[in-house]
Amino acid sequence: MADEIVGIVGAGIVGLAVGREIVRRRPGTRVVVLEKESRVAAHQTSHNSGVVHAGLYYKPGSLKATLCTRGRGMLREYCADRGLPYDECGKLVVAVDRDDEARLDDIYARADDNAVPGLRRVGPAGIGEIEPYATGRAALYSPHTAITDYARVCGAFAEDIVAAGGEVRLNCPVTRIEEAGDALRIVAGGELVWVDRLVVAAGLQTDRVSRLAGDGAGPRIVPFRGEYMLVRPEKAHMVRGLVYPVPDPRYPFLGVHFTRRVSGDVEVGPNAVLAFSREGYGLFDVRLGDLGDNLTWPGFWTMGLRHWRTGIREMYGSLSKRAYMKAARRYVPEIGPEDVVRGGSGVRSQALDRDGGLVDDFRVHRLGRVTAVRNAPSPAATSCMAIAEHVVDVVSGEETD
Q: pLDDT value at position 351?
């Protein structure tokens, strides 16, 4: 790969981490990052909760499990080296009924296989010692779960790429990818860009950009909007770190939770509402092309038939602050609908297979000179530096996809 030009589509945290890993590992390689927005980290990276996950939930041996474990340590060291915020505020995963307690055992077993550091199970008294205002029958406590500012991490990655002689080109949407002999000819921002290899890490648009490069139609990206409530300052002291529910194993979402941010604010959320625009952060944002992509994908209808009840419940919570907070109050009862205001929102890039299955693990495809990151949901931000290692191995032929 040395002395080559490698293009990267997408200046989110995964794309920039890949670019940084290439210039770090392959001196002499020139990296050109192509980003359609006017800034880096414009979408998922700057609209998430900032949590650095410890690896509790992920199937042992999966890419999520292995890359989260390695990536967490790499990110912690990088933040320390660059003076970026990194606060190990800890996380409680709280069981409020017997079904939750049974699933807590499964999570503990997975976390043990994934070598989650310092994890311990606590009862009601232990919950109160860690989070005085939280309640539950039992909980898992992960003291090394942390929070950071992923947008600032992205900025540092971009600086590293530029310092090594690379480029981060903004306002450059990719509209064409063609093979031209021993190179790739790309049209981005109306200009021709020639590269030897290409990595697609386009987040919410990754299936579309991958298809430009000749990849298959699946998995299709189906967007889910996650909305946050912001706890009023007078109640923010009631959450010291992170308070999570026991997740529903049917879904790759972690449920509405309480999250302290590095700013000191406390958020509640996110929920998971089907979005009608891939980059629509408002309840009534609709883009017909995005909606059409959903409706013409067979897996969308299969998913809808399986999960329509949950979808209606999530939508009701989106419309009603009282309904939204009803579930959250099971964990911190003293924070109710009158104690929160509507905060920001994000859109999750959820890959959906043709059979209606929600893709859970990271998924990377190599197509000759093009490597496509087709699915990188949470904990992709936590794992970004380890994902970058894996992607560069795939690009170099050192790892199968």
A: 93
